[in-house]
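Entry 12.
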Amino acid sequence: MAQVKVFYDQEGNTLTVWFGDPQDEYVCEETGDEVVLMKDKSGRVIGFEKLNFSVAKSGKFQVAFETVAA
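Predicted 3D structure (tokens):
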């Protein structure tokens, strides 16, 4: 079973999502759309960070996942 980790930093206005092991991070690549891709040694994307991300004043933040057939 795969595990996805989602972190929201309200002070830094960042949303970080890991779908690989964060300890495997080898290099980061900025896409130019305020998104940073975290990659392992083989160049596979294992996470991303959205910069300047903010949640509405309600403070509620929901995450939903959907799987698709390969």
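Annotation: The chain has one domain: 1-70. The mean pLDDT is 89.
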